[in-house]
Amino acid sequence: MESARRRGATIALACVGVFVAYLPVVTVAVSLPAIQQALDASTAQLSWISDAFVLPVAALILTAGVFADVHGRKRVYQVGLALCALGALVALCARSVQLVWVGQALAGAGAAALLPVTLALISHAVPDPRERGRYIGWWTTCMMAAMAVPPLIAGAILEHVGWRWIFLLPVPVALLTMVVAARLLDESRVHGKRRLDWPGQLTAAVAITTLIYGVIEGGAESFSHPRALVALTVAVVSAAIFVAVELRSSAPMLDLSLFRSPAFTASTLAALISFLGLIGFFFVLSLYFGTVQQLTTLQSGIRMVLVNVVSMFLGLVMGRVMRRVSARMLITVGLLVAAVALLCLTSVGPDTSFGSVAWRLALLGLGLGLAFPCITNIAVASVPPHQAGMAAAGNNALRQVGGALGPAIMGALLTVKAVGALPGHLAGAGLNGEIAQQIRGAAEESGLGAVAQLDLGSDTGRAMGATAEAFLDGLRLCLFVSAILLVLAALAAAVLLRRSRSTTTPVPVPNDSASSVAVELAERTTPGSSMAQDRSSSSTTAVSGRESSTVETFG
Q1: Domain positions in the chain
Q2: Which residues of 11-45 are buried (b: 16+ CB within 10 A; e: fewer)?
């Protein structure tokens, strides 16, 4: 009875942890127009507000997973909560966009600690991959709840007080969770020879940081600009060194042999590509609501929350659905439905009604709700239990790389397309000469949002109309690119998960209790598995059988 209560507390705290980790994502996204106006920030600076959070998540998540396995998951869980609270406090007190970056970076470091640990806690508490799917569905639901609740709270806050107060919510939630976890969460770690891989960590951090910096600078200036070229070159070289280091390391931060599993590779590619398109989409969608439709943050939040509310409620039943429908089908169909929803959004205009936008966003939420729980579940279930933490960290790391690149790439596409289309729309509105030159100069220097700050007298209405049409040209390009990315992610999942049905790779089993549970489970659930004469042969056969059974279930 006591063990059941402890398991329930572990699962609940894991779900609360991912809720805290994702709180800043949409809270900031729906508040970007207010932050831009208050701090006079450019589009590139707004991209960095999102990327300042996602970048440390992508750069540190692998190290956090290893550190938790070696030094204790409860300890890293508590540190992650503390960093999330500290980052929110810094952003709450920010008087400049640079200080918001600092707060977001601290919160991102906290999220980097929480994301792999929360999945590892569930994997440790529920070793049966079939039963675990139900709780990963809950985990995904809490992640979606973290994206659904904050827009409404942020909107209500911005209706009455300043934008800084949007960062208040994570502070009490994180601190209260720390107190509860100190009493109810048991410590767990991997027993073995895992250790921190500093060469891998440094090369991965350099590669991710320079890649995102190069994309943002290339979008803001030009990809032929020396800063962008140097950053992207360093990123490629660092990534190559990282692969070489991990292949030779006796204790790699990311065991590249994980990618021999088609199921793990499929889930990782689907997560990377889909997050690249979707986080970038949410970035430009928030600007559309604020810049084109001139909605308040609360009104924007109500619209954007539809995506996450549908996904959240679908996540409550996905554990049962995943037992009856193959993950290959759910992921492929879900991502294709999401792509169709994005293509439907290309027809929106300045005066598109709430109802017309709502069904498209609800359709997007339906697609994501079908796909994302399966993507996460496969990443953990396709590897042995002792590698579950590493698999979760690797999947989340590449997902966050996609999430970091999304705003940078979509922001660059939006700016280039919109600024390029602006002269034609200005001419069509009857604005030429010095006024048109002034508007173009402001847009090229600080983004389309800067046009609203100009004193254009009687020409203001026509200027804002032309700016809105130029923005819509950029938005449609971003939606089209995002839809293509989701289709590519769906194709990757469909092809690789089809291969995984007939692909099994025996893996060595360390002599620890988690592996023993996995061996016994595999021997009981794998039809026709034979018992070998010695323990070593039995272990290998059992785990191979477990992987085959898992792939049959999820693939």
Answers
A1: 2-197+251-419+470-500, 198-250, 513-554
A2: bbbbbbbbbbbbbbbbbbbbbbbbbbeebebbbbb
Residues 480 and 343: beta-carbon distance below 8 Å: yes
Burial of residue 327 (CB within 10 Å: 0-12, 13-18, 19+) is buried
Class of domain 2-197+251-419+470-500 as given by CATH: mainly alpha
CA separation for the pair 40, 43 (Å, rounded): 10
What would the DSSP string read from start to end of 294-330? ---HHHHHHHHHHHHHHHHHHHHHHHHHHHHS-HHHH
DSSP string over 469-532: HHHHHHHHHHHHHHHHHHHHHHHHHHHHHHHHTT--------SSHHHHHHHHHHHHHSTTPPPP
Helical H runs in 431-459? 433-446
The whole-angstrom separation of Cα 352 and Cα 369 is 25
Helix (H, G, I), strand (E, B) or coil at 249: coil
Which of 27, 36, 50 shows the shortest CA–CA distance to 155? 27
pLDDT at 544: 35
* Tens-place pLDDT, residues 288-314: 887 788 887 778 778 877 887 888 788
pLDDT digits (tens, 9 = 90+) for 145-164: 777 777 778 878 888 888 88
Mean pLDDT of 232-241: 94
Burial class (CB in 10 A: 0-12, 13-18, 19+), 179: exposed
The one-character DSSP state at 82 is: H
Distances (CA, A) of 236 to 60, 63, 208, 240: 18, 20, 10, 6
Helix, strand, coil % (nearest 5) of the chain? Answer: 85, 0, 15
Q: Please give the model's pTM, rounded to 2 decimal places.
A: 0.69
